[in-house]
Design brief:
This protein has seven helices and twelve strands. It is α+β, with helices and mostly antiparallel strands and about 325 residues long. It has two domains: about 1-40 and about 90-210, Cupredoxins -  blue copper proteins (Immunoglobulin-like, Sandwich), CATH 2.60.40.420; about 215-305, Cytochrome c-like domain (Cytochrome Bc1 Complex, Chain D, domain 2, Orthogonal Bundle). The strands form three sheets. Strands 3-2-1-5-8 form a five-stranded mixed beta sheet, with helices on one face. A five-stranded mixed beta sheet has the order 4-10-9-6-7. It has a two-stranded antiparallel sheet with strand order 11-12. β1 and β2 (about 110-115) form a beta hairpin. The longest helix has about 35 residues, at about 10-45. It is elongated and about 100 Å long. The chain starts with 10 loop residues before the first helix and ends in a 9-residue tail after the last helix.
Length: about 325
């Protein structure tokens, strides 16, 4: 069976398809209008016809140009607003979204659920529930692409990227890399498995138990020596991490930033980029000393301290 329209399986896909259909209809209308005018003028002003060929009145010409230009400008602004409003929604995941960590590497997708369940080239999600993806690359530029969801997010090494989706159809859907990333780029593929909430809960419970990200991060926090500076009992003058995540932070250069995941990541890899006011830039960089998975764990641990009265390291 030949399908003239790709499968639609997410809320984002529905909105994207409406925009695509609207642009297709508009383009078809303009093409039909131009074609009709072309044929009409060709017949009316053919050689030997008695149609008048004098110059167009100046007033009519000016009004026509102003009207056509204004209509085109209004249409462009409307289309820009319409498409942008959909794109902006794709960057704002709901607060109740399930969080999944995704690491791209040559040539696979590694996914990690909040309870520690791990998958390679697969991602199981419940239908009708928003899923927030925190994406990182371990080596080169990749692109997380799910055609049925109309979801495509480039993943640049050294940066944290976020996107989200909400599946609307049960089934298995292709997960691809849409950015050439090396020799086996074409083999970097996986699948998104959309399940009922009950089946998803059963699947999640059946996965091998593993330490969750926060617990792994707590162990790394001590193992890598972070507790020697950031613990309450530390003699080194370093910022406290208890309750840090989500707070606003005053920097030494006068800027005010929010301690989100991107800020925490930069503080680990580029500690001299955003120095907290009142502290010396003495923290060493951990770039090249921590894997993407370890960075994820440390960030998760710091997030777990967001509502803690004291540092639990």
């Amino acid at each position: 069976m030949i399908s003239f329209w790709p499968e639609t399986a997410s809320t984002l896909a529905q909105r994207i398809d409406v925009i695509f259909a609207g642009l297709l209809a508009l383009s078809g209308t303009i093409l039909l209008l131009v074609l009709c005018l072309l044929i009409g003028f060709s017949v009316r002003y053919r050689r030997g016809s008695a149609a008048p060929r004098g110059p167009m009145p100046e007033v009519m010409s000016r009004e026509f140009e102003i009207g056509w230009t204004s209509a085109t400008l209004f249409l462009f602004v409307f289309l820009f607003w319409w498409a942008t409003s959909v794109e902006i929604k794709a960057f704002l995941p709901p607060k109740d979204a399930i969080e999944v960590q995704v690491v791209a590497k040559q040539w696979m997708w590694k996914t990690l659920h909040s309870n520690g369940a791990r998958e390679i080239n697969e991602l199981h999600v419940p239908i009708g529930v928003p899923v927030r993806l925190a994406l990182r690359s371990q080596d080169v530029i990749h692109s997380f692409f799910v055609p049925a969801f109309r979801l495509k997010q480039d993943v640049v090494p050294g940066q944290l990227h976020e996107t989200w989706f909400q599946a609307t159809k049960l089934g298995v859907f292709h997960l691809l890399c849409a950015e050439y990333c090396g020799t086996d780029h074409s083999r970097m593929r996986g699948k998104i498995v959309v399940m009922t909430p009950e089946d998803y809960a059963a699947w999640l419970a059946a996965q091998p138990e593993g330490d969750d990200l926060a617990k792994e991060g707590a162990a790394l926090f001590v193992e890598r020596g972070c507790s020697g500076c950031h613990a309450p009992s530390a003699k080194v003058h370093a910022p406290s991490l208890a309750g840090l995540y989500g707070r606003t932070v005053a920097l030494s250069d006068g800027r005010i930033v929010t301690a989100d995941e991107a800020y925490l990541r930069d503080s680990i890899l580029q500690p001299k980029k955003d120095v907290v006011a009142g502290y010396e830039p003495i923290m060493p960089s951990f770039a090249g000393r921590l894997s993407e998975g370890e960075i994820q764990s440390l960030v998760a641990y710091i997030r777990s301290l967001a509502h803690s009265p004291e540092d639990r390291s």
